[in-house]
Design brief:
Radius of gyration: 23 Å
Number of helices: 16
Order of helices and strands: HHHHHHEEHHHHHHHHHH
Strand order of the largest sheet: 1-2
Strand content: under 5%
Largest sheet: 2 strands, antiparallel
Distance between the termini: 8 Å
Structural class: mainly alpha
Oligomer: single chain
């Protein structure tokens, strides 16, 4: 168990507010919202620095998870720090422009520097969560907030879709190439958010002993979230949500947490109910969208082109990549975007973009992080029988959540969205802390 300090409560509520606000601020993908997010992490870093001052015996927890994350930040720093002096010449017009500048590993050092700041902000948030989520009461509050916020943002997204007139929040005009849903500029990323949020309250409702009225409220929250995910028209999101429900039932069965056939059928019935609600709201659109499955329609064809071109980028820069965040600047030399007047910002595959931006070194660091995450979660899994029911719900729900977002990242770029990456890291921090008492 961790140590409690007077400022831990402030850190906890700051993290909760940051998750909610980062989602509402269009997923925190724009310069102004990223700046606010990063300024808040300075505040969090200050609070973390005060903890050992208040209690000299306090220790940093989660170091094995933090080290690979810090290594990835260090890689970004190395990529944009100049090495070697620029070419000195009296006739600069005769020298290639790339040789006139200070040399860096990144082909777009400015973008890599911005990406490094973003990685550092996420690292600080992840570190903060690992320090303060050891208390059972905070884990209980976090799951309540997840459920209420998931319900609220899903209901807002559904209402906005029914009344949509080309403006997000009914006031902001957006580019015609955007495909918004809820507070996000892309429906796939809202589906990714629901993949993160939904499994946790569902596991809670199935595992924790609460009265029937409260359980019904949890189920209503889950149904509204699932309906919103289906209404995004994200086919990958809907498929992954189905996989998550199946995985949840499997984990409940393997742990002996299912006491009756009723608990086996409940998740399926909830999703069926959500599907019926979604088809009642937008059945014609859903039939048209999902009727395209398996065809070489636009989104499938463009992704194949993006991935083919991205692979060529990686094979040309296999060791250190082109620089974290440099993809938008380099991609036009390899392939075309589907948007006529906008450049392609992401590869639509987080794993492939990890290779293009950070090369094999970045991939090895990512594997190191995944190994440490799996090792930590496995340690808690072995203590499953000694856990409280609420911690069992967090562990099973968190595993299902993270599995879903990792699957979705193979066909999209949810982990490039700061709000979704932050939420995923927070969930990982909760299911990684010691929670047997």
């Amino acid at each position: 168990m961790g140590t409690k300090t007077p400022i831990d409560g402030v850190i906890f509520w700051d993290l909760m507010a940051a998750i909610v606000l980062s989602v509402l601020a269009f997923g925190t993908v724009e310069p102004w919202s990223l700046a606010i997010f990063q300024f808040n992490t300075i505040f969090l870093a200050g609070l973390l620095a005060l903890r050992p001052v208040i209690d000299p015996g306090i220790r940093l927890t989660g170091l094995r998870l933090l080290l690979p994350f810090a290594a990835f930040f260090l890689l970004a720093l190395i990529q944009f720090v100049p090495f070697g002096a620029p070419v000195q010449t009296a006739s600069p017009e005769t020298v290639p422009i790339a040789e006139l500048a200070s040399r860096t590993l990144s082909l777009d050092p400015y973008a890599t520097r911005e990406a490094a700041f973003k990685i550092l902000a996420l690292l600080v948030c992840f570190c903060a969560a690992l320090q303060v989520m050891h208390l059972p009461e905070r884990r209980r509050l976090a799951i309540v907030i997840f459920s209420i916020f998931g319900f609220a943002v899903s209901l807002f997204a559904i209402v906005q879709r029914l009344t949509y007139a080309g403006k997000m929040y009914w006031i902001r005009t957006i580019t015609p190439y955007a495909a918004p849903f809820g507070p996000y500029g892309n429906y796939n990323h809202f589906a990714g958010l629901i993949e993160l949020l939904l499994p946790i309250p569902l596991a809670w409702a199935l595992l924790v002993r609460i009265d029937g009225e409260k359980r019904s409220l949890w189920f209503i929250s889950v149904i509204v979230m699932a309906a919103a995910a289906i209404l995004t028209l994200s086919r990958s999101g809907t498929l992954i949500l189905t996989i998550q429900i199946a995985l949840l039932v499997l984990l409940l069965h393997r742990t002996g947490s299912i006491g009756s056939i009723r608990k086996v059928l409940l998740p399926a019935l909830l999703i069926i109910g959500a599907g019926l609600l979604a088809f009642w709201i937008g059945g014609d659109t859903l039939m048209t969208r999902f009727g395209m499955l398996g065809r070489q329609e636009h989104s499938v064809a463009t992704r194949i082109e993006y991935w083919s071109s991205s692979w060529r980028i990686f094979t040309d820069h296999p060791v250190t990549g082109i620089g974290i965040g440099a993809f938008p600047a380099i991609y036009p030399s390899y392939g075309a975007s589907s948007a006529k007047y906008e450049r392609l910002e992401q590869a639509h595959n987080d794993y492939l973009q990890l290779l293009t931006d950070a090369g094999l070194i970045g991939a090895l660091i990512a594997l190191w992080f995944l190994f440490e995450a799996a090792r930590t979660v496995r340690t808690n899994w072995r203590a499953f029988d000694s856990m409280r029911s609420r911690d069992r719900a967090w562990l099973i729900g968190g595993i299902v959540s993270l599995t879903g977002i990792l699957l979705h990242s193979a066909v999209d770029f949810n982990l490039q969205i700061a709000a979704n990456a932050f939420t995923a890291l927070f969930i990982l921090s909760v299911i990684s802390v010691e929670s047997r008492k």
